[in-house]
């Protein structure tokens, strides 16, 4: 992983002044704090969602109460959406720098974003697959999973507009975990792709290639 990061740094041009590099590092530090705080709150919620679904799945079909599952899973889904929306709002308030090269602060941001995608995005995909066995619960919880995914997409897009190169690092981290497909789908959903974010990412990792 260290070799990947070094290669990424060496392959990018950095035309920033020392003052601009300092500002970028401060921005990455601030964004890292926001996302790490979100991680500390949403990770337990994701675990709770998984636990409720797994518990219901372990029961015999005749003993399954999908209304109970809906009642249990709905609060953490709604709470997670609220946390991510608040995080996205805070990220939108940051000022974008003019250029990018990975610094230790930006590496930290990439790691925090990787955890967020792995926890929230991974749980959403996992829950969708599991809920295929619970049609009533899927009808009620499916829209909540979609709602939880929207601010995640916006957070990824927001970070990309502020420090686009960080997404290349995130992609490398998730690719090492076999989750590059998940990352690709999230990046593909963000409206920021219309502003050229897809070209920035694909030039570094070719994650958006067919």
UniProtKB/TrEMBL annotation:
Disordered: annotated span: 1-37
What InterPro entries does the database record attribute to this sequence?
DUF6987
- Record-annotated DUF6987 domain positions: 16-201
Top-rank taxon: Eukaryota
Q: Where in the sequence does UniProt note compositional bias of the Basic and acidic residues kind? A: 12-29
Question: What is the name of the protein in this document?
Answer: DUF6987 domain-containing protein
Specify the species. Answer: Collybiopsis confluens
